[in-house]
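Bench notes, afternoon.
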Amino acid sequence: MTGFMKKIALASVLAAGAATNASAAIVTNGSFESGLSGWTVFDSIGTTPGIGITVLTTGGTNTTGYGDNVPNRDGTHAAYFVDDNAIQSVSQFVSLVGGTDYKLNFSLFATESGANNPFGFALTDSVGLFTLLNVNSNLTVPVGVWTDFSYSFTAPITSNFYVLNFGFVSGRTPAKDLLLDAISISPVAVPEPATWALMIGGFALAGVAMRRRKTMISFA
């Protein structure tokens, strides 16, 4: 990973909390339609261009101001990480139910205007769910298109104080840039009791059919 200077990290930090409602939306403003509302922002505001974390309107021409035409992904807005020599992050508390399986989903758009910049970025998390690198010609985040990412995990305990954090660390000028959108955490659906009954019944019928088939073959 020598040479990359921009990275985004997603961290899950656990603290004790109360029971949560699994049916409620888990991530607030994950599509950035309300700007950075719902997110706690840490922004050192670096150099080049030194604008900090911004929310851009997508779907038009020259979305980034550098000639990138970024289509809509989830609504008409996305968070833009572009500053060099900066330490920045967006984070929020999320509520999860212990023992429940979840999927973390988000979308990334690596800009064409920054694709040829010599310093890259890494998107990683603190618990080993994923490592995504755009360094030199190694592009795990495709350039010029929205790419969806999905990762599964299980919440160890019930808490209102899991921290979802996307942290941006950038080094020398110039480095590759990207947009972030469509962040969600959703419980993995499990079959309803009636569905389980149908599945079990189906397996039983299949077993009977197999036994009958074997009997017929044995008499042939």
